[in-house]
Amino acid sequence: MRGSFLWRNRVLLTSGALLIVSLHLISTGVHPGDLAARPESAFLEIISPVDAAFTRLSDGLSSIATGYLDLLHVREENARLRNELARVNSDRARLAELEVENRHLGELLELKDVLGAKAVAANVIGSDATGLSRTLMLASGSSDGLRPGMAVLANQGVVGKIIAISPHASRVLLIDDHNSALDGFDQRSRARGIVAGLVDDGLILKYADRSQDIRIGDTIVTSGLDGIFPRGLLVGTIQSVHRGAPGLFLGVRIEPAVDFRELEQVLIVTQPPPHLDDPAKD
Amino acid sequence: MRLTLLFAAFVVLGLAFESAVPHLVSFRALIPNLIIILVVDLGLRHHGVVPAMLAFAIGYATDALAGSHPGLNAFMMTMVFLVSYEISTRLMVTNALVGATVVFFGVIATALATVAFADGFNALSDTGSMLPGLTLEAAVSAIVAPFIFSMLAASKRMTGLPVRAKRE
Q1: According to a count of CB atoms within 10 Å of the terminal CB, is the N or C end of chain A lower?
Q2: Is this structure's pTM higher than 0.80?
Q3: Rounded distance, CA A121 to CA A138, Å?
């Protein structure tokens, strides 16, 4: 047995078989409810509490480091008040954090009222593990009423959509990921296009006709035609318009309205937007 | 079983670290790719069916937390395992320097292959601006790799697992 062809090449044969399985998964995709989606959901469920703990630990260490620096400064001035000041600083940092969180949640509530659709808030607990894609991890999942395909928003504008879910965690594909696409239009000229991410960071408006009057500083909003994002949500502003770009369409770069790195809380629209007509006909 | 449990623990911590820390660190390239380091260790030091399946499982676990094409990281990690395995069977030594070199090229090759797979080979022409950051990430990962290998070796000794692969 040990000298046989199969035994000698067991690693190569196993790896080959696993590569074929991977290619099959890539080509067919994994849909919610598939057998192949179960391990993914289980991994997400296992990792999310550890991830949340890491985030809390990092926040805590950051607070301690800040507190320690404050403490050193205070010691130089007055050693007697050191402990008191540290306590006050710690309380102040905690209160400031609560205040920021309250403000974010308040703004999300306002956004929820403006939308007039059912929505739930969720905390961001992590980002893409490889850094090659632009995704976020949320501390809410299917037990909170979330489903794949739901729109994710911040008070500044559109964030992305849910692509994977487990009972207590979910992953969001950001709109600036190179595999993301959403239907948007220029609010001033009504020119429509597809807002897509780029591999080398950034956001563009694809398929904008050369005859369209798109200008730098114009606002791009969602059209609602993709059936995911409610109409009229801010996507970003036009950063540059390249009329000399090769091909049939304009080269349009967009500055996203949302700073994705600064996101701490987001709002997930749990109610799909109503069917709409083309905004270019307005 | 011990090998699976040991790597499962390292993978959970590694993935949680890579997912949580980028949210706090402004420059993503400074965060080492711990997952590739683990897979390279598997390929260099553990030759068998179970390590190959572990590499696939590590990739699939990464798919749960990264990217939008399930199976892509599973494919990449299996490839990294296979290349590491082939290198270890052809070289006389598989020390930390060899491991660090494999990690360096593994990080760059995996990133470029992921872009090519996800967006087509034309998208590789857009990766020019990615390369400096990618090279830095690969260098940081290569520098960190010997420490992770040492940690793994210590953990393997503690659990009674072989630290080096048997020559075939």
Answers
A1: N
A2: no
A3: 10
